């Protein structure tokens, strides 16, 4: 095993590939994997929350009560506000100045 630190290794890699090629933490994680015998270079899924929203359900919910906030819509769909905003944008719904959602 090498006594060179992850920082030194990342600097050597960066020197070879013209700067900014890899961050120290990436090197550290990679070498931890290699030391444990895991030579797979693919990232593993990380149990992130389900972000699937049925667009038809969301559209129907907005049509029934366009005055709902994104937080209320998110709670009803079981996702984050950010996810609801992304899907509202996809279905071309934007918040109007009067407080409801309208077609964009």
TrEMBL record:
Gene Ontology CC: condensed chromosome; nucleus; site of double-strand break
BP-aspect Gene Ontology terms: DNA double-strand break processing; DNA integration; double-strand break repair via nonhomologous end joining; mitotic DNA integrity checkpoint signaling; replication fork processing
MF GO annotations: DNA topoisomerase binding; double-stranded DNA binding; histone H3K36 methyltransferase activity; histone H3K4 methyltransferase activity; single-stranded DNA binding; single-stranded DNA endodeoxyribonuclease activity
Protein name in UniProt: Jg14524 protein
């Amino acid at each position: 095993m090498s006594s060179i630190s992850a920082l030194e290794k990342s600097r050597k890699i960066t020197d070879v590939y013209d700067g900014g090629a890899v961050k120290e933490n990436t090197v550290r994680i990679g070498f931890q994997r290699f030391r444990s015998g895991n030579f797979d270079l693919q990232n593993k899924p990380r149990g992130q929350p389900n972000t699937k929203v049925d667009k038809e359900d969301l559209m129907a919910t907005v049509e029934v009560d366009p005055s709902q906030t994104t937080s209320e819509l998110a709670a009803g769909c079981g996702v984050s506000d950010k996810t609801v905003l992304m899907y509202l944008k996809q279905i071309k719904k934007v918040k109007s100045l009067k407080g409801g959602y309208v077609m964009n």
